[in-house]
Amino acid sequence: MKILVLNAGSSSQKSCLYEIADEALPTQAPQPLWEGKVNWTQDKGVAEVEVKTATGAKLQESIPGDSPQAHLTYMLNTLTRDVTKVINQLSEIDLVGHRVVHGGQDYRESVVITEDVKKAIANLSNLAPEHNPSALAGIEAIENILEKVTQVAVFDTAFHSTLPDAVAIYPGPYEWVDQGIRRYGFHGISHQYCSGRAAQILGKDLASLRLITCHLGNGCSLAAVKNGRSIDTSMGFTPLEGLMMGSRSGSIDPGILIHLLRYCDYSIKKLDYILNKTSGLRGISDISSDMREVTKAIAQGNTRAKLAWDMYVHRLRSGIGAMLTSLGGLDALVFTAGVGENSPGIRQAACEALGFLGLKIDLEKNQQQPVDEDIATDDSAVRVLVIHTKEDWAIAQQSWQLLK
């Protein structure tokens, strides 16, 4: 079975093609036959298309025009032509799986996409305005390109649908619950994949483990996973809550927002932009939302960059502490995503605060670019894992399982 995966971002559309035997899923992620990405640059009317195949063929082109569907069509056509050809025709694709950020309260697992599902994704766009519309555009583009193919929506919020009410419900008036205002949590596809992969690496039954998964990228979130189920998470009603992030503030005193609206002539639009685009590492360092650039600036003696680092670490440690109390103990701490996988300094700083648990990080292993490895010392009471998150493979897995 050939499964195409589309993972829509706010300014990009990533895609890959997997081939999976009809009989059973492989225990570990195979290499995609083909991977593609469309990136809409700041230059209006231009898209950057990058494609590579499992055999090493590559394509990189700038495509004019302002139609995302046309750009996506162009990228998908590279599946069947020239050096990046991996199939003879697009009709060979059996199934298309989409990452959809927000599924609301109604979608607690992956579903085959129908008109009702599309309407729900559209209606939830006000809760995920940078992502749900992009996912919907991808779904509709595939309808035009592959008219009869089955499409599946895999929701980032679904893994967190097991949160207890005491965790999910906010302490405002109870009518908020009826209005759908509650903690949804995000990065669920990544947290779920990394939980399962952690159990594989440790040779344990997932149902026996207490895990804290740290998805640290430009967006950051934590999940407390007990017996394979999410029981707590740091992101909430929107992806803005929780940890300090690349350009998002994370949790702040809501009284600040009231103050800014009332006394500082802030519009809702300006407030939204500042909290999501010019806060976090970018806002404090005044350098970048990229941890690598912040780290370089620290080495050059930049005090604002050092402050941003210290704040990031403090909030990460505090968040891990909150997840600990929900779990009542810890078997493994998992780091994933861009910062989690590539910043040994952040991993070390987070782990240093957890020595009281008997957690001991192996400093040498931590520096060696570990991938899907345990970097705790042999005598550590808590395992420390670095896992390369594979959301696209998780989407393919769930789509295959749903069709079967």
TrEMBL record:
Residues that hold ATP according to the record: 14, 215-219, 290-292, 338-342
Location of the active site: 156
Keywords: ATP-binding, Cytoplasm, Kinase, Magnesium, Metal-binding, Nucleotide-binding, Transferase
Recorded catalytic activity of this chain's protein: acetate + ATP = acetyl phosphate + ADP
Keyword Ribonucleoprotein: no
Cellular compartments annotated: Cytoplasm
Family indicated by similarity: Belongs to the acetokinase family.
The name this protein goes by in its record: Acetate kinase
Source organism per UniProt: Desmonostoc muscorum LEGE 12446
Name of the encoding gene: ackA
